[in-house]
Task: structure prediction
Amino acid sequence: MDQVRKTVTVEEVKEGILKHLLTTQGQIPEIASTNDYYQAVAHAVHDIILLKLGENLKWMVHNKGHRLMCYLSAEYLIGPQLGNSLICFDAMDLVRQAVTELGVDFDKMLDCEDEPGLGNGGLGRLAACYIDSCATTGVPAIGYGIRYEFGIFSQEIHEGWQVEKADKWLRQGFPWETARPSLALEVGFGGHTQFSTDAEGRTVAVWQPQERVKGIPCDIVVPAYGSNSVSLLRLFKAEATEAFHFDAFNFGNYYGAVNDKVLSENISKVLYPNDEQFEGKQLRLKQQYFFVSCALQDMLRILTLQGLGVEHFAKKFAVQLNDTHPSIAVAELMRLLVDQHRIPWEEAWEITRNTLGYTNHTLLPEALECWPISLFAQLLPRHLEIIYEINQRFLDSVRPLYSSDTGKIQRLSLVDDQGKKIRMANLACVGSHAINGVAELHSALLQQTVLRDFYELYPEKFFNVTNGVTPRRFLALANQELTALINEKIGQGWIKDLYKLKELESFAKDADFQRRWAAIKLNNKKRLAALIAERTGISVDPNSMFDVQVKRIHEYKRQHLNVLQLIAQYNRLKRGETAGFAPRTVIIAGKAAPGYYLAKLIIKLINSVAEVINNDTDTNSLLKVVFFPNYSVKNGNVIFPAADLSEQISTAGKEASGTGNMKLSLNGALTIGTLDGANVEIRQEVGNENFFLFGLITEEVERIKREGYRPRSYVESNPLLQEIIDQLSSGVFSRGDCELFRPLVDALLNRDEYMVLADFDAYDKCHQQIDQVYLNKKSWTQMSIFNVARMGKFSSDRAIREYCRDIWKITPQL
Ligand code: 26W
Result:
C-alpha cells in the first residue's frame, strides 16, 4: 500500500482523474460539474481498490485451506466511500491537492457522494464496521446481503412532522460496485416437494419451486487501512430469469410475462424501514431467503472452485448470522447438503452447526421474528419440512433431559404453542455452535431471559462479544483536526491499535494540550452550527454546550425523557433561575419507523418544543433546541466530533449495546447515561468519575414493575413534572392544541412502559450537576481527553479478534 502512495505523484493523480472525467463521465474540465469530478475521482480510487482485490484473490487461490468468514446480514450501512478510502490509503492530502489544482473545491466534491443507506441503524452500521475491521485485521471475509434499490427513506420535516421520501441513492450511479452477472445464482419459491428413490434405494426429496428468481452479485470492495488487504461485500440484486421470456413467446402472453418479471424484481426493491418491530410480511421473508440462498450457493461455488468437496464446508467457512434475519440459513444449508449433495442428515447437521454462529441484537419481545407457518408453507414448503424434521430430532434429544417439564419442551420448540409460527431465534440457537450477545450486560440478560432455556441446555455455546466501531471512519476521517493533534503527540499507531490512545493520558493535564483540544472541539462545533443553519435555519451558539442525542427514535431510547428535562430547564430559566446554568444547545436526530405512531409524535414534540424555546427571547441566548433532519452516516460524521455531551439514556436492560455511545465518546463527548448496554463497559473503561450516571438499574426496573408501577405517583410527588405534564396537556407547546400530545401524555401517565417518569428526577438532577462541571472548562476538557484516551476497547478490530478467537476459529493475518 505504501508503494501505491509513494510512487504516485500529484500530477499522476490529476491525470487519473482527468482520464476518468472523460472515460466515465464523458466530460471535459471546461464544462464538468463538481459531481462529474466526484465521479471521476471515485472511479480513479476504485481502480486502485480493484488492484488490491486482485492481490487478495491470488492469496485466496494459494491458501485454499484458510477459513473464510462469511457475514450474513440483511443490512449494511456503509456510508460514503471516497473519504474513507483516502484515509485507508493515507492519500487524503495528495488527492486534496490534486483536486484543488484542478480548480475544484475538494470538500464540495466529497459532499457530492450519496451514501447507500442499506440499513436501519445499529445492526446495519455494525455489519459495515465489521467488514472494515476484517480487512484491516487481515481476516478474509465476504459480507453477503441485499442490494436494495431504495435504502432507508430520507427524512424531511414538514411542520414538525417526519415525512418519508424515497431514497434514490443510485440516481447518479454508484462508482463503488461491480455487477457480476456471470456469477448469478438462482433461487426458488413456492411449489412442492417430490419424493423419489435413488439408485441406492434412499429417499430423495426434490423441491419443485413454482417461481425462480436470479440473484446478481454486486460487489463492493472494502479496503483495509494501511495494507493491501480487502474485504468483499457481495450484495444481491433480484432479476427475472430468462424463463419468463420463453413463456411470453410460447404462449403469446407477453404482458403477463413482463408483469411476472417486474414482480420477481421487487424482491430487492426496498429495505424494510422497521427496526425492533417484527412485521410478518411475505416480501420480507422472500428477501431473507433470497439473499441467504444466494450466499450459501456462492460458498458452495467457491468450495468447488477450490477443488474441495462439500464435506469440507464447515472447515472452509465460518458463517455469522447478524440477528435472526438470515436464520433461514439453517434450513437452506441442510437442504443444499441433504437434498442437492446427498449428504446423510446427521453429517449435514454436523456441518451446519459447525458452520453457523448466531448474534442476537435485541431483547425486545416485539422484535423477535416468528414467521407464520402458513406463509412458510406457501413460500418455502421444503424448508418447512426440514424445520419440522430438525425440531422433531431436537425435541426427541432433549425430552429425556426434561421428561416432566412439558413447559420447558414447549419453550424450546421451534414451533410456537399454538402451532402457528416458527420461532426464528430458536431455529438459530439450535442450528449454531455459538450464540452471542453484543455487550456484557446484554449477553447476561439473554441468558437469564429470552434464551434462558437454551443457555441451560448448552451453556458452552454462549459468548459475549461487545460491539465496537471502526476508528478509521469515526475518528480519523470524521475528526481530522483531532487526528492531526493525536498523531503529533503519539503517532498514528492508534488507527490500527486503538488501545494506543492510552498514551494521550499523559497530556490530559497539560494546559497547552487542553487548549488545543478545546479549540478543535470549538471548530467542530462551528462546522456543525453552519450545517444546522443550512438544514434548519436555526442559529446556534458554538460556545454553548452541544448536548447530543442521535439514534433511531424509539420509546425505549427515551428521546421524550430528554424533552421533559429540556422543558424543566426552560421553565427554570423563565423563572429567572439562571445561576449555575451552562448555556446549552440540545441536538436530537433520528428516524422513526413510518408506522410507529408514537415515535413520529415524539419528533413532532421535539420540533414543537423547539419552536417555542428557540423563539423565546427571554431564554434563547441560553437554550436552543434543534431537530437535525435525516440522520445518516454522513451527517453523523459532522455531529460526532462536535458533541460535548452524549445522551445514552435508554431504560436499563433495553438497549442491547449501542454504538453511537462509542462514536461520541471516541470524539471527546462525555456521556450522560443509564447502566444499559455498552454504557456499563464505557463507564468501566473511562472511570466512574468521567461518566455521568443516573437512573434505575435493570433489577430495579424489573422489581418496580413486578410490584406494580404507578407512573402517576411520580407526577403527583414532583411539582416540576406536574407543571410539564400540564403544559403538554394544555397546548403550551402546540399553539393551544390540547389534543396533539395527548397520546404521548396518556402513554406516560397510564403505562410508561419505559419508566420515563420514574427516571425523570434523577436525570434532571444529573443534568444540573453536569452544568457545574461544564462551567469549569479545564476539568471538562481533561475529562474529555480521558474519555478518548480510554476508548481502546471499543474498536471493531478488537471485536473482530474476539469473534475470530471464540467463534470463528480464524487467525487474523495482520
Ligand atoms: C424484524 C424487525 C427488526 C429489524 C431490525 C428487529 C430488530 C432489528 C435490529 C436487531 C435492531 C437493531 O439494530 N438493534 C441494535 O443493534 C445494535 C448492534 O448490535 C446495538 O448496538 C443496539 O443496541 C441494538 O438496538
